[in-house]
Design goal:
The complex is a heterodimer of chains A (170) and B (781).
Chain A: H1 3-6, H2 11-23, H3 31-42, H4 47-57, H5 61-68, E1 82-87, H6 90-94, H7 97-108, E2 121-126, E3 138-140, E4 143-145, H8 150-169
Parallel strand pairs in A: 1-2
Antiparallel strand pairs in A: 1-3, 3-4
Helix pairs in contact in A: 2-3, 3-4, 4-5
Chain B: E1 3-8, E2 11-16, H1 21-27, E3 51-54, E4 61-62, E5 73-75, H2 79-94, H3 110-118, E6 135-136, E7 141-143, H4 153-161, E8 167-170, E9 177-180, H5 193-197, E10 203-205, E11 218-223, E12 232-240, E13 243-250, H6 264-268, E14 283-285, E15 291-293, H7 296-312, E16 318-321, H8 328-341, E17 347-348, H9 355-361, H10 372-377, E18 380-384, H11 388-391, H12 393-406, E19 409-414, E20 426-429, H13 433-440, H14 453-462, E21 466-470, H15 476-487, E22 492-496, H16 503-508, E23 515-516, E24 520-521, H17 527-531, H18 543-552, E25 557-561, H19 565-569, E26 580-585, H20 590-593, E27 597-600, E28 609-612, E29 617-621, E30 626-627, H21 633-643, H22 648-651, H23 674-684, H24 696-706, H25 714-718, E31 723-724, H26 755-759, H27 762-780
Parallel strand pairs in B: 1-5, 16-17, 16-25, 18-19, 18-21, 19-20, 21-22, 25-26, 26-27
Antiparallel strand pairs in B: 1-2, 3-4, 3-5, 6-7, 7-10, 8-9, 11-12, 12-13, 13-30, 14-15, 14-27, 23-24, 28-29, 29-31
Helix pairs in contact in B: 2-3, 7-21, 8-21, 8-24, 13-15
The chains are: A alpha+beta (170), B alpha/beta (781).
The structure holds iron/sulfur cluster (3 copies) and FE2/S2 (inorganic) cluster (2 copies).
One iron/sulfur cluster binds at residues 224, 226-227, 229-231, 258, 262-263, 265-266, 393-394 of chain B.
Chain lengths: 170, 781
C-alpha cells in the first residue's frame, strides 16, 4: 500500500509534507510543522493523524505523542469550527480580559476547553497571544479581535454564526 | 584519554580527562546522590540531586554532566549543597503519595534513602495532592503515577538499552507523565528492565508487587535456568508452608556477565517452581497400570532392583538420557553411573549445538574461544545465523551495549531479517551458510549473486580481531569449515550458541554415546580411562536410537533424567511398554506419563552445583527454593547407586580415603584406586575432601581433576564470578570425531518460550499469549 493511497490528507498537504521532511538534516525536525498543518486541515490530532505523521517521518506514534502533548496549541479532541482563545495574561487581565472570558462563557454556555453542542464554537483561556498593545485580545482560529469590550463579544459571535450559515446555505 | 588531577572536598583525585565527575567521585568513594543518572545511559540532568559547588562557577553544577578537567576544585558536601538537595526533595515530595508502608520499593527506594539523609521531613506544599489510580500496562508491568519522580531512567533504559522504545514522556510541567506505547498498555519485550531501574516504586512487577519486603527475603545468587546465556540472577526467597518460596528474581548486585540485565524469562519465569503441576511424590506404575504415589524408599528400591537385575544380564542393556537443564556435576555423575555402574555405553542428551566439533577444532589452539565478556567488549563481532534478540536475549543486550558505548562493529549474516540489524554495520542476507564460509575463504563464485557480499567480506577481512558467534545452523562439517577459516587468521575467536541453561555443560561432561567427559574418546590412555576401568568401550546408541530400541525391547530399561524424548520424537502412547522406564523430572511430562517409575526432581533453583553457559562461562548455582518431597538429581543417582549395593565412594569422591589425612599416595601406591588419586590431587590443590556423598562439589573436584578444560579458581567461583572453560586444552583425539553424526536439533526458544519449563511457567504463558494478541491483531489488519 502506498502512502498516497492511505493518506488522510489532501493532495496539497501530502505534497507539502513530502517536501518538508526532506528540508531538514533529520526527518523528525519536520514533526512540529507537520502536526500544525495536519491540525489545521483535520481539526485535531486524531490517532489516525498521529499514526500517519509517524509513518511519514519514520518514527513511532509514541514519539509523536511525546512531542505533541508538550504543546498546548495542539489538540487531541475536535475543537469547534471556530476556536475562541481568550487571553487572560497580565496585560489583558489588567484591561478586563477576565470579563471578556466570562462573557464568552455566558454567551456560549461552555467553559474552558468546552465545545458547544452544535460544534460551532469552542472556548479556551490562553496565555499571551502577543497582542498586548491592543489588550484585551481574543483569537478566533487565526483571526485576532482586539481592544475588546464585553458588548463586542456578542457581535463577534454573531458574525461567526452568520458566516457559518452563509457557508452552510451555499 | 590523558589523566587529569582535580580536587574534591580537599582531596586530590586523578581520572582520565572527560570522566564524569559523579563517576570519578564514586570510584574514589565519594558518594554523590543521583536519581536520573544511570551508568551507561545517556545523560539527562533532570533531577538536580547531584549538584555540587565548583570553584569559580557562579551556580551549582550537576556532577552527572560535568566532565573533569585539570585543576578543577569541587565541594560535594556543604550546608549550601545539602539545602539545595533538600529543596529538590521537597519539590519531588510535593505530589508524592508517601505510601511507603505499602509501596513495593519501601526499604530499597532511592527517594526514601535520600529523604532520610537530607531530612525533607515537613512539606511546605499546601495544595491537595493529585491522586491517580495505579495502572496495569501488561501482565508484568504496573505503573503508579503519583510515585514517579520523572527521572526518565525507564524511558532511556527501554529505548537505549533494549532498543524497544516502548516508553515515552507526555505533557509537561506538573502534568508530565510516563506513557506506554499502547496508550494504556505496553506492547514490548516485557523484560522488566524499566522496573529494575526505577529508583522509586512507580514501576512495579506483576510477579512481586505487594508480596514481600526486601528485608523479609533471603537473597540467593544463582544462575537463570532458561536459556544458554547464563545470566546471574538473585532469587528473593521466603519461608512458605512447604519449604522456601521464590517471590522475586532480579540481579540485585548487578554483578556477573549480565550486569543489570535480565530478560522476561529470567525476571518473571520462576513460578514453575511452585506450579500446581509440580511432582512432589515418587510414582510407581501399579498392577492396574496406573501411576500411583509411593515413598522414596520404595521407589528407589524398585528402580535399584530392576536396574541391578538388568545389569546382571550383560553390558549395554540400559539406555540413559541426561539433560541440558541439570548441573555439570549431575551430568558428570550420571554418565559415570551409566558407564561404571549400569555398564552401558548408551547415554546421550538433547543436543542443541555441536560442541564436540567446536572443541575438536579448538584442540591445541590457544585462546580461540570467546567468553561472554569477550564478546561484550570485542571491537568487531560477526554473528552468523540465529536470532539473538529472541533466543539469546543477553547476547543481544551485550551486542547492543557494545555498539552503543564502544561503537563495536557488528556484522550479521542471516537467512532472515533479525532485530539486531539496527545495530549492525553490515548485514548480509544469504541463503546458504556453507557458501558464505567458502566465500569468506576466497571462493568468489560461492556468493556471486548476493548483493553486498564483496563489501561484507572486505570489511571483515580488514578487521584485526573478530569474534565469530555461530548459531546452531553451523554444525558438523560446516562448523568445522567455518572454524578452519577463522583459525587460519590471527585474532579470530569463536562462540557457539546452544539452547538450554547447561547445554554446554552436558556436552562438556561427556553425556554422549561416543565421547567421555572433556570429549575424550571411549578408549584411550588418559587418567579417566583407567579410572573408569572396565566400562564398555564400543559406541552406544544416540538418543533417537535409544528410544527406538526401548520401544522394541532391545533396551531392557531406559533412565531419563530431565528430558522429554516422547514429546520431542513424537513417540506413540504405550510404545515404551517393552522396557522398564524410569523418569526423573519436575513435571509429569509425556515421557513421565509412559514411565514405570517417576522420581520428582528438584529444579535448577533448588540445588547447588555449577552450570556452563554456551560461551563456556562456568558459574555456581545455589539452592534458593525448597519444595517438599523433591530431590536433586545428584542425590537421586547417589541413592540409586547405594541401593544397588555399589561402593558410593567409587562414584562420588567424598570423605577421607584412608582415615588418615591424604598421604600423597605413598602408603597405598598411586594406582591403588580412584579415591587415593583424588586425595592426592586434593592435597596438591590445597582442598579439603568433601564430607557427604550428596555434596555435588565433591564431583566438581573430580571434574576439575579429570576434565582439562575445567580449571577453576574456587575462591572466585564461590564468590559468584564466572570461570571460563578452555576448550581444546588437554588431550583431544582428532579422529574420534571424523564422520560423526552431530545429532543437533535446535529448539529455537523465544522471549517467553523455554521448552517444557516455559510451558509450566504461568507468567511466561501469560506473556506469550499477551504479546501474541498484538501480533495476530496486527497480522489481521
Ligand atoms: S518491560 Fe522492557 S521492553 Fe517493556 S517497557 Fe519495560 S524496558 Fe521496555
Ligand atoms: S517511572 Fe520510575 S524510572 Fe520512570 S521516570 Fe518515573 S521514577 Fe523514573
Ligand atoms: S537471557 Fe537467558 S539466561 Fe539471561 S535471563 Fe534471559 S533466559 Fe535467563
Ligand atoms: S497579555 Fe494578552 S495578548 Fe499579551
Ligand atoms: S543525577 Fe544529575 S541531575 Fe539527576
Amino acid at each position: 500500500m502506498s502512502a498516497e493511497a492511505m493518506t488522510l490528507f489532501s493532495t496539497e498537504l501530502a505534497a507539502r509534507f513530502d517536501a518538508l521532511v526532506e528540508r531538514y538534516p533529520v526527518r523528525r525536525s519536520a514533526l512540529i510543522p507537520m502536526l500544525l498543518y495536519a491540525q489545521d486541515e483535520i481539526g485535531y490530532l486524531s490517532d489516525a493523524v498521529i499514526e500517519e505523521v509517524a509513518r511519514r517521518i519514520g518514527i513511532t506514534p509514541l514519539d509523536v505523542r511525546n512531542v505533541a502533548t508538550y504543546y498546548s496549541m495542539l489538540r487531541f479532541k475536535p475543537a469547534g469550527k471556530f476556536n475562541v482563545q481568550v487571553c487572560t495574561n497580565i496585560s489583558c487581565m489588567l484591561r478586563g480580559g477576565y470579563k471578556i472570558f466570562e462573557r464568552f462563557q455566558e454567551r456560549l454556555g461552555i467553559g474552558h476547553k468546552g465545545v458547544t453542542a452544535d460544534g460551532l464554537f469552542s472556548l479556551e483561556e490562553v496565555e499571551c497571544i502577543g497582542a498586548c498593545c491592543w489588550a484585551p485580545a481574543v483569537q478566533v482560529n487565526y483571526d485576532f479581535h482586539d481592544e475588546l469590550t464585553e458588548e463586542q463579544v456578542d457581535a463577534i459571535l454573531d458574525e461567526y454564526r452568520s458566516r457559518s450559515q452563509k457557508a452552510g446555505s451555499r | 584519554m590523558a589523566d587529569v588531577t582535580f580536587t574534591v572536598d580537599g582531596k586530590k583525585l586523578t581520572a582520565p580527562a572527560g570522566t564524569l565527575l559523579i563517576e570519578a567521585c564514586r570510584k574514589a568513594g565519594i558518594e554523590i546522590p543521583a536519581f536520573c543518572y544511570y551508568p551507561g545511559l545517556s545523560l539527562q540532568a533532570a533531577c538536580r540531586m547531584c549538584v555540587v559547588r565548583q570553584e569559580k562557577v557562579p551556580k551549582l553544577q550537576t556532577a552527572c554532566t560535568t566532565p573533569v578537567a585539570e585543576g578543577q576544585v569541587f565541594i560535594t558536601d556543604s550546608p549550601e549543597i545539602a539545602q539545595a538537595r533538600k529543596a529538590t526533595l521537597q519539590l519531588l515530595l510535593g505530589n508524592h503519595p508517601l505510601d511507603c508502608p505499602v509501596c513495593d520499593a519501601g526499604g530499597e527506594c532511592e527517594l526514601q534513602d535520600m529523604t532520610f539523609k537530607y531530612g525533607a521531613g515537613e512539606s511546605l506544599y499546601a495544595e491537595a495532592k493529585q491522586h491517580r489510580e495505579e495502572q496495569q500496562w501488561s501482565p508484568v508491568v504496573y505503573f503508579d503515577r503519583p510515585r514517579c519522580i520523572l527521572c526518565y531512567r525507564c524511558v532511556r533504559m527501554c529505548g537505549e538499552g533494549m532498543d524497544v522504545w516502548a516508553l515515552g514522556i507526555q505533557n509537561r510541567g506538573v502534568s508530565a507523565v510516563i506513557a506506554p506505547n499502547g496508550g494504556d498498555h505496553l506492547d514490548c519485550e516485557q523484560c522488566g528492565m524499566c522496573i529494575d531501574v526505577c529508583p522509586v516504586g512507580a514501576l512495579t512487577s506483576g510477579t512481586y508487587r505487594y508480596k514481600s519486603r526486601p528485608w523479609e527475603m533471603n537473597h540467593v545468587s544463582t544462575v537463570c535456568t532458561h536459556c544458554g546465556d547464563g545470566c546471574k540472577v538473585t532469587l528473593g526467597v521466603r519461608r512458605a508452608d512447604d519449604g522456601m518460596e521464590i517471590v522475586r528474581a532480579d540481579n540485585r548486585d548487578k554483578s556477573g556477565i549480565n550486569g543489570d540485565f535480565l530478560c522476561a524469562k529470567g525476571r518473571f519465569g520462576f513460578d514453575f517452581v511452585h506450579g500446581k503441576d509440580r511432582l512432589t511424590r515418587p510414582l510407581v506404575r501399579n498392577a492396574a497400570g496406573v501411576l500411583e504415589p509411593t515413598t522414596w524408599e520404595k521407589a528407589i528400591r524398585l528402580v535399584a532392583q530392576k536396574f541391578g537385575e538388568t545389569v546382571g544380564t550383560g553390558d549395554g542393556q540400559i539406555g540413559v538420557i541426561g539433560s541440558p537443564r541439570i548441573t555439570n556435576e549431575e551430568n558428570y555423575l550420571l554418565q559415570k553411573f551409566a558407564r561404571t555402574v549400569l555398564r552401558t555405553q548408551h547415554i546421550d542428551h538433547e543436543r542443541t549445538a555441536d560442541y564436540p566439533t567446536f572443541s575438536r577444532m579448538l584442540a591445541g589452539a590457544e585462546d580461540r574461544a570467546a567468553s561472554h565478556r569477550e564478546i561484550a567488549a570485542a571491537p568487531a563481532i560477526l554473528v552468523l545465523g540465529g536470532n539473538p534478540t529472541e533466543e539469546h536475549p543477553l547476547l543481544a543486550w551485550s551486542l547492543r551495549t557494545n555498539f552503543r558505548l564502544n561503537h563495536a562493529r557488528l556484522y550479521l549474516a542471516n537467512t532472515q531479517p533479525i532485530r539486531l540489524e539496527r545495530q549492525a554495520r553490515q548485514t548480509l542476507r544469504i541463503s546458504d551458510y556453507d557458501a558464505l564460509v567458502r566465500y569468506l575463504g576466497g571462493e568468489d563464485a560461492a556468493m556471486a549473486s548476493i548483493a553486498g557480499a564483496a563489501e561484507f567480506r572486505q570489511a571483515l577481512l580488514a578487521e584485526e580481531s573478530l569474534v565469530v558467534v555461530a548459531g546452531a545452523e553451523y554444525r558438523g562439517a560446516s562448523l568445522a569449515a567455518l572454524m578452519r577459516w577463522g583459525l587460519c587468521r590471527t585474532g579470530v575467536k569463536f562462540a557457539l550458541l546452544s539452547d538450554f541453561a547447561n547445554a554446554r555443560g552436558a556436552a562438556d561432561m561427556g553425556v554422549y554415546p561416543d565421547l567421555l567427559p572433556g570429549y575424550l574418546p571411549l578408549a584411550g590412555e588418559q587418567p579417566l580411562h583407567s579410572e573408569y576401568a572396565g566400562m564398555p568401550t564400543n559406541s552406544g546408541l544416540d538418543l533417537t536410537a535409544m528410544v527406538e530400541a526401548a520401544t522394541t525391547g532391545a533396551l531392557k530399561a531406559l533412565y531419563v533424567v530431565g528430558s522429554d524424548p516422547v514429546t520431542a520424537l513424537g513417540v506413540a502412547q504405550g510404545a515404551l511398554r517393552n522396557s522398564f522406564v524410569v523418569v526423573e523430572d519436575c513435571f509429569l511430562t509425556a515421557t513421565a506419563a509412559e514411565a514405570d517409575v517417576v522420581l520428582p526432581a528438584a529444579s535448577l533453583y533448588e540445588k547447588t552445583g555449577t552450570v556452563t553457559s554456551c560461551y563456556g562461562d562456568i558459574q555456581m548455582v545455589r539452592k534458593a527454593a525448597d519444595v517438599a518431597g523433591v530431590k536433586p538429581d545428584f542425590e537421586i543417582v547417589v541413592r540409586l547407586a547405594g541401593a544397588m549395593g555399589v561402593d558410593v565412594r567409587k562414584l562420588v569422591p567424598f570423605g577421607q580415603s584412608t582415615g588418615v589425612h591424604a598421604d600423597m599416595g605413598q602408603s597405598r601406591g598411586a594406582q591403588a584406586g580412584e579415591a587415593d588419586r583424588h586425595a592426592v590431587w586434593l592435597t596438591a590443590n590445597d582442598l579439603e575432601p568433601r564430607l557427604s556423598p550428596f555434596d555435588p562439589l565433591a564431583t566438581l573436584d573430580e571434574v576439575e581433576r579429570l576434565v582439562p578444560s575445567y580449571r577453576l579458581d574456587r575462591l572466585n567461583l564461590f564468590a559468584g564470578n564466572e570461570m571460563t572453560t578452555t576448550p581444546g586444552a588437554g588431550f583431544v583425539s582428532l579422529d574420534s570425531l571424523v564422520g560423526r553424526k552431530d545429532g543437533v536439533v535446535a529448539t529455537h526458544p523465544g522471549l517467553f518460550r523455554s521448552g517444557e519449563l516455559g510451558r509450566k511457567t504461568e507468567m511466561l504463558q501469560k506473556l506469550q499469549a499477551y504479546q501474541e494478541g498484538f501480533h495476530s491483531a496486527a497480522a489481521a489488519d
